[in-house]
## 1
Amino acid sequence: MERIPILRMGSFLLVTIQVDMHDRLALQLQDDLTARIAEWDATGVLIDISSLEIVDSFIGRMLANIAAMSRVLDAETVVVGMQPAVAITLVELGMSLSGVRTALNVESGMELLYQMRGKLHAELDDDASNQA
Amino acid sequence: MSKLPDIILKHEDEIRSNWLKHMASTVRRSDLMNDRELQDQSREVLAAIAEGAKSGETSDLSQQAWSRARELMQSISASRARQGFTPSETSAFILSMKPPFFHAVRQELAKSPDEMFQEILNATLLLDGLALITAEAFTLAREQIIKRQQQELMELSTPVVKLWDGILALPIIGTLDSARTQVVMESLLQAVVQTNSRFAIIDITGVPTVDTLVAQHLLKTITAARLMGAECIISGVRPQIAQTIVHLGIDLSQVVTKAKLADAFALVLQKSGRTVTRIGGSPRNAGIQNAESGLKPEMKGE
């Protein structure tokens, strides 16, 4: 069965949605992601939807749900790279995804996650300066 | 049976020359149309009328026989609308055919006043009908022009300006309706993607009034931008607009609003970790308050 891969980057999880989402895939992702957060003690989830071109209210709700579930499991969710058309569609559907953090691209999304977990960021800076 | 069709066919040339003479003395606009064009046009019109008249029907212009005359009227008045004729000049083009028509009728039916009256009535109804068609087509053509201009205006009036690396400004001039919001939203989001901007300042100095609908449109745009990972700030809120917003109970608590574009820009610079300092200025004058004056030397360098 088709699955969306979940990558681990330190204490963050990286999900890139490269295929058209259909409902079963979305539910599968929801299951997998919650399981991985618990398994790996993840503190942040980054979902890259830059290749997603079509959304409906179900997918929108799924994004909101994933964010809410992650928060219950003590992980922050950042959705990055939303296409203009997708953003407009979600707004027209009345879904503002108010609980979801957003960023322009993976880079700034990661930055946001580090900021939210400021401790980690500070540690990384320390490491970098030690190496230098 | 009306004698008007026969009269028109018989006197076609005479009517045309009289008509041209009459037009030359009344509604001629030589600045917009040369003699040659006018002659061709009047020949065509009269030929179309004669063709319609051949059917024997002069009161009902929706008949098949008059379709050519109708189309001709429509195309002539549409082209005149574009050329800049006034509505009255356009209708007068047809209505000035009346005197030559009546003249022909009188020549033909001088002996029986009753018949003459009847035919003059018929001719009046016919030409009035044609004039109405021209008026309608004229308005239609004007409306199309207005619509096209509206579209162009809409595209022109929503520029997205890059203020700094990662900072966009969107000055909105004019009323925001749903169609315009769509354009504004699309161009802003497109620009956010293209320039990789994290901040967008929506300046509403040029928006005359903000009602609940406009506010809703603004909030939609801001929400869409947020979904993409860009933060929006509203600037240019005039005192009256601030009052209206509060009176209408519009909730803008989720959005940062600033009175001036400069204030919003200063805030965004601060948020993106930048400071603006005056080169060689006294420490008292340095800082974000002097954004405008302090920025100039740096901008030259970019």
## 2
Amino acid sequence: MKSSVFLERRAYHRRRMRDLARAVPVFGGVLICIPLLWPQGEGGVTNANAIVYVFGVWVVLIALAALISRAVQSDEPPVVPTDES
Amino acid sequence: MVSFNILVAVALAYVAVLFAVAFYAERRAAMGFGRWLHSPIVYTLSLSIYCTAWTFYGAVGYAARSGMEFVTIYLGPTLVMVGWWWILRRLVRIGRSQRITSIADLISSRFGKSTSLGVIVTLIAVVAATPYIALQLQSVTLSFAVFAQAGGKPWGHEELNGAAIVVAMGLATFTVFFGTRNLDANERHHGIVMAIAVEAVVKLLALLAVGIFVVWGIAGGPTEILQQIDASPISKWQQDGSRWIGLIFVSGAAFICLPRMFQVLVVENVDERHLNIAGWAFPTYMLLMSLFVVPIAVVGLAVMPAGSNPDLFVLTVPLSQGRDGLAMVSFLGGFSSATSMVIVSTIALATMVSNHIVVPIWLSSRTGQGAKVSGDVRYVILLSRRLSVAAVLALGFLYYRVSGGGTALAAIGLVSFSGAVQVFPALIGGIFWRGATRIGAAMGLIVGFTVWAWTLFLPSFGDGAIITEAAMLHGPFGIAWLRPDALFGITGMDPLVHGVMWSMTLNSLVFFMGSVFSFPTPLERLQGAQFVNVFDYSAGSPRWRSSVAGAEDLLIMAQRILGGNEAQALFQREAKSQGKAGYLPDVTSDFIERLERELAGSVGAATAHAMIGQLTEGSSVSVEDLIAVADEAAQILEYSNKLEAKSAEQDRTARALRDANEKLTALSVQKDAFLSQISHELRTPMTSIRSFSEILRDGEMTAKQQGHYAGIIHDETLRLTRLLDDLLDLSVLANGQVTLRDQSGNLRDLLDRAVDIASGNDDGLRILRDRSGEDFVLNTDLDRLGQVFINLITNARKYCDAKTPQLRIKFSRVSGQHVVDFIDNGTGIQIGNQLMIFEKFSRIADQSKAGGAGLGLAICREIMQRLGGQITYLPGQGGAAFRVVLPNVETLSNQ
């Protein structure tokens, strides 16, 4: 019997979801550093806008993490501790 | 105005509620109803100890001073949490598979279970946490002072110090009570986790309440508050990029490395899947905590008189508006933030101090007796933990006194964070890079710690307090490039960024170079492979060669640390999985490794390894073993390991067969011996009966002689009858033809009777009992059970070879069964014979002493089987010990 070189569709999809899970903090890190490019001081961005931006990014990150967390349920069984009394 | 006394009363009532919650959770967990304690929500809430009084009070102060920068402290952990797939998942898996008890334990375990690394990490953690604990004490006392002032009696130094002492002692009591109550094999504390989950809710609600009041109650709505921010002194986005990035890094790394965070993230984690939820739920928590920080700061700056401490706006703003109830809620929120952090922090530090410093010293101070000495050491470990809790809190208090409690909260917090982060390179290197070595890690930690202490920690005591002003300005001894705020002559950096940058850079560099140019020991390489490839090798590989250690020695040692019942249960389970009966499994390398992990859960990896090492006489891993499992071709060998696992089942069967065979062989030998013995036993009385009856038949003797001879004949027939009775009894029992009577009575009376009958007038054997504890109602055939007891006591009298023989009779409850242990102080029974003693016809030691046919224990076993109980030999008790498991009848209430 010849086994396929490729993963079946669902397992493949799960792997890509994990890649996505890994990418979220990188993506978040970039977004969070964007304010450093803003003009500062007089005539620059106000803190009121900065608050809206930062909390907006925060909400997006949380939402992304929540969505992905469903998709990446680990398929390997969790380690069973040896104290099964 | 809230009177100060009401405030104290509310605080005390709140503490009482926390005690009750912790108590209730422990009770439920002990009764096995702890399911809800293990929910992802409780896990997420327990992570909230990240948000301490620093968040609750300090964040607003931080925002009032530097605008949006405060948010970096929560953005770092947010990135770590949403990226849980990278680091946290790995840490939690390692923590569970290696039974990690603290961050020091993780580092020590990864680098070859090194004791010295454990000590270094523990010291760093204690030094870095001390300012932070001081900070919590400071914030609680300051908040008390606010109310005292509002009540018209401003506090001086005296009162502040007094309050700090009371708070520190109260926290020590709570922590000792719930944190060091028992030595849990998994180092989990249900009561405390539940209490901090409650505190998490309280502090969140409190801060939200103040925020909502400020936005809608004072400012008039979200749009208005944004306008007010625009009009405030902190309206402009002015952010130093190096601080922004540096702080996000420091807070993210500290989130993993802080001992208390490691404790709740990894050690208290009961299910890996909780990370899934916490990965987004905890960032949400932090977002809610930070949401109203800037509004409160802005409104505080507007409504409070100039010069008031912005660190206390959360309290003073509601007070100034006459909202006493809200101020009270806010006070409880701050109180919760401070207490939960201190409690978990002290537990984590106390575990580290006791496992990595006190216990190793205690163990090495009694080499010679070593790990084999019997007696419980758990009390030593618990005591050392309790003392460590007190010591850690005392240190915090001392720092509070020395630093004068004057510095802004945020500044102290950041110094502490950057200290904890020194573990980060070794941690990340340890779990991702197999080449990391112990020497590299130790050098990196020491260099990083030194640079941190020089650039951040020592200057934090204030100008000229420890480092002289001359040294600050011109460097120590005039060496300009060593100036604490301008290492290598690079000036103009923010002091914090400067300290973090240099300490982390040098730390990582030295760690890397040290690792590259040193050679790891075999155990390090093995642990390295297990940590880095934790998702591939959860099973682990053998690391203890040949079994020099005896199973009984191991049991004795395990009993000292895990406690008698747990250790016996563990050994029994292991023996069972090998297909053996009794308490002593074969000492395979697998078994030793499992045992070591079990012990590591209580005393840390390094100590557990050292203790096992003492017993196995250091036959740890050799380079050959290592090549077999951990070289670069390990993946291929792993496959063969899997095949090996498949043949484990066959191994078990083979072992069982081998045991059975040994038993049969021994039995047949004994059976032959018994046959000759029984013929001898039958023949001796028969001979005398025959000769004396011949004499009687021939007559011609006095009546006195006649009586004497008849008496002898009578005695001999009695002996014969007894022997035959025994044989009959046994065969009846064995064939199941016996009818059991249904009686009920008290265990104490039964034992009293058995002791009376068995000892008679003979007072050579001292019997130790706890008669008051034996009040237990039995429903079984009491005569038969009594027969078993009598037999065991008689045996002890006959065979116990101590100078002053003693027999301890102990009634107890072990894993749901009632047992009576009979333990004497003789030499006990050798392992080889332990299997045999319950067999028919078996008799060990010299035959003459026995005076019976070796049927006693065989009869006992048959009786116990018929009654639905069990009798077993209990090894490792310092003498011959038998355990009678009473028949499991429904227990009537104790009379």
